[in-house]
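Support request, please re-run this one:
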Amino acid sequence: MKETKNQQIKLNQNLPKGWRKVRLGEICDFVKGKKPSKVFDRKISEEMVEYLLLEGGRLFTWKQKGLIEVGPPDILVVADGASSGLVLYNRKGILGSTFLRIRIKKETIELINFRYLYFFLKNSENILKSVLTGSAIPHVDQENLRLLEIKFPEDINEQKRIASILSAFDDKIELNNKINKTLEEMAQAIFKHWFVDFKFPGYEKTKFVNSELGKIPEGWEVKNLSQIANVISRGSNLEYISDKNKGIPVLNQRCIRDGGIFPEAIQYAKPVNSKFYLKKWDILINSMGTGTLGRVSRNLSIDYPMIIHNCITFVRSENPAIQLYLYYQLKLQEKYFEQLAIGSTGQTSLPIEVVKQFRVLLPLLDILENFFAEIEPLWVLMGRNKSENQKLVELRDLLLPKLMSGEIRV
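Re-run finished. Output below.
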């Protein structure tokens, strides 16, 4: 393939002393993932392995001839779709059809450290994204990827030192994520025990009565969500601006997944009414489009101005005990909300009236306050961990280009 100014991926920097450069295609082999004939949303056999997805739930399949297995030290690049150019590492399973596997060739394995290579590619994501092909669906062109210039210290030990510094940030981030996962599992278990199995404190002495939802504790009520929450609203209409220094970041649907907020593809808009700014513990429901519609998350850590996009429904209660309770009730309804969407393919939406009229079991206030006393410390700790992770990401990303260019030597 003949290189052109538009297609050539090139990093025009002077090489530091003791560094060299090669094309990625000279040191690595590329393989595109394939979709299995069957996938399952749960592991029904120990022989099954995970079918790797970029986001969302987990899928599993059996090892089959022709499928591509990956694991450390393989590096993955998202090759198709809106996230094309994203670089991933430390994933194990069957390679999804939207991924490329990058594996160092046997003959060059002693030339470059795989973790160093991962961080170099991570630092090059913007370059990869700048030369995507395709209009409706972006793609990573493998030939362009092969042309990418990789720069590295010839001393393999220096490569390892660089990778070790950056890995320390990722290791701490991963540890915080594991802690948060455990804390969230604890919170969900308490919610289920109290409000699904009805094993709340004092349940032994409680009389149960009939309701539209079945047997419920006496004194508890079934109400519309609008009768419980103080605010149920779509986000604001927006006027976007290109200068992020003059705008407010916008929380979009792609940020909402796995019960949390993961800022990505952030755009900026002019200020709006304060009602539409993200607040602590806001419950967020994706309410338009396909693939993400129905997802329920909450804000645990973002304390800076951020506008809620008008494709997102937010729910607020002035009582924090009710707010925490409502999150777990609504989180259980993700599939239900998805089924209630109206409209044609690609233009589906969740009407806000459907959300407002959703019937919710409301326990007695003293039960909710006891639940809050159990759960609130977990949410606070999860929020702190997420805030720490954001600071670690910012520091790591500040160091990354300096280490990869040789500006900082170690």
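Confidence is low (pLDDT under 50) at residues 1-8. Residues 365-405 form the longest helix (41 residues).
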